[in-house]
Amino acid sequence: MRNTPEIEDLLRRNAPQVLGALVRRYGHFDAAEDAVQEALLAAAGQWPSAGVPGNPRGWLIRVASRRLTDALRSEEARRQREERAAALTPRDAFTAPPPGERAPREDDTLSLLFLCCHPDLTPPAQIALTLRAVGGLTTTEIARAYLVPEATMAQRISRAKQKVRGVRFGRPERWEQRLPSVLQTLYLIFNEGYTATSGAVLQRRDLAGEAVRLTRMVHRLLPGDCEVAGLLALMLLTDARRDARSGPHGELIPLDEQDRDRWDKAAIEEGVALVTGALARGRPGPYQLRAAIAAVHDEAPSPEATDWPEILGLYDVLLTLVPGPVERLNRAVAVAMVHGPHAGLSELDVLADELKGHRLDAVRGHLLERAGELEAARAAYESAAAQTLSLPEQRYLQARAARLLD
């Protein structure tokens, strides 16, 4: 009997909690992950016909614990260390939990995220390990999403696991200092899903959806953190436009040409409520400000009705916190919309030495076109098209350039 979507969702939601419980109790990240996978396979084979148990998470932990303790015993036996293996194995690992036993702590998932975002790991390694351990994606799925060979991704994940081996499981003593790394990892995953940096498709919806799901999880665990709420709001407000971003053949449709009736109104309402509540509670952070900018775009009934002065003001505040070249590039667009394209082009000139890649030339082409400098605009579009690895973006930029030849 095949799994139902409800069972698949239940398994995915419980997988990080089960892995977190095993790593917290036993350590052995690799072995614990293998045991969880075996438990998930067992559930997928039994639950559709036998029914979902009353405590599915407890069932999974119990089965995974059996697999893990068996594996540890076998390994220790081969090394003739049975006494040590027995000492590491809880006596109740093979029995059902007694009535009233508490479920695994809800912060196991957050602890697992902290482990995957350990500062000794590079951002690509943090992303890969997070998707593997917390998101439950297979190595094949992660490799496909990032367009790298499966062997390369497997090595990346394996090296990441080696680096966190022996790290104490649980929230770090100064966990607030590591939370920005967790949020940045989730944000990078979302951005790659929302606008793929390379390949034949504009969006990888499963990747963006996974980032939203994981951020919702963090928000449930830390409901009072304004930046967590801001990041979730930003994702929802941005992802609300995804159905309108692509044409019937996968072509890119820019924001000012999208059919706003196709935007997800429920996601916009939820995102606006989240960012409004977060901003009202305290000092604005970068994710809250980015979400506020997205909310201004989403609440405008038409491109002409967009409140660009408000957006520019929000970017001014954002740059006091994050004065990076990408933020300044986005602000240059707002400057152009408020003060005219030449003012925006002046802003771009100071970024030429800091920001390389197609986005600077794409924005330059757009502003030059608005300024009536069509030949220069065409050259900028062509330069941007030659630099991007995304085929939908490349085709869009080439079409903009070709249109200026008429």
Automatic annotation (TrEMBL):
- Tell me which positions the record assigns to the signal sequence: none
- Show the SUPFAM superfamilies listed in the entry: Sigma2 domain of RNA polymerase sigma factors (SSF88946), Sigma3 and sigma4 domains of RNA polymerase sigma factors (SSF88659)
Keyword terms: Sigma factor, Transcription, Transcription regulation
- Cite the RNA polymerase sigma-70 region domain residue spans from the record: 10-76
Query: Which residues, by range, are in coiled-coil regions?
Result: none
Family matches, as Pfam families: DUF6596 (PF20239), Sigma70_r2 (PF04542), Sigma70_r4_2 (PF08281)
Output compositional bias ranges, type Basic and acidic residues: 73-85
Q: Where is the DUF6596 domain?
A: 178-278
Keyword Transcription regulation in the entry? The reply is yes
- Top-rank lineage group of the source organism: Bacteria
Q: What family is this?
A: Belongs to the sigma-70 factor family. ECF subfamily.
According to UniProt, the name of this protein is: Sigma-70 family RNA polymerase sigma factor
